[in-house]
């Protein structure tokens, strides 16, 4: 099995597991499904308490998507990065470690919430910046690169809107928009044809 195929499988498995795990956790969260997606952050799904009885599933999803990103990026995707290699490696590490921190250190605990928040910022801000860097670091600037750039820009814009409106009732929607850009990009890596 080629490196490219292995990488594609890892990217698809990580992103699909994430989306399915979040959906299942949202279904069992202590609110309606619609309200959970609109009014409750992704991090809330990962807090082990009565509101989120399947929190372990969400935290596993964070860790798995972080590992998938790390593996897929360092195992195969790196071969197509022509420019900005140091930035690519650094941002990949920051993003992956950030997501894993989010899965290992829950929000909602005053003693550890600072670490959780740091992990979230590393993952979201680092990840969407990574997408912008990747879009400008390959040999060509075609469909894949353009979509990657658009996703990165959307993620960065929604992150900053969320950051300055943290008390807004719809903040969880902005959070999801800034996170889903990374999940969509992982899926894109899995389904794009080999060049």
In short:
By secondary structure, the chain is mainly α. It is built from eight helices and no strands. Helix content is 73%, strand content 0%.
Helix-strand makeup class = mainly alpha
Poorly predicted runs: none
Shape: globular
Termini Cα gap: 17 Å
Helix proportion: over 70%
**What is the strand tally?**
0
Strand percentage lies at under 5%
- What's the domain count? 1
Gyration radius from CA atoms, angstroms: 16 Å
The string of secondary-structure elements, in order, is HHHHHHHH
Mean pLDDT: 95
Give the count of helical stretches.
8
Could you describe the largest sheet, including whether it forms a barrel?
none
Structural features, described:
The protein has 195 residues and is mainly alpha-helical. It has one domain. The protein has helices at residues 3-28, 33-39, 42-45, 55-75, 85-104, 113-135, 143-163, 171-191. Helix 4 runs antiparallel to helix 5, helix 5 packs antiparallel against helix 6 (113-135) and helix 6 crosses helix 8. The longest helix has 26 residues, at 3-28. The chain is globular, with a radius of gyration of 16 Å. The two termini are 17 Å apart. The model has no long low-confidence stretch (mean pLDDT 95).
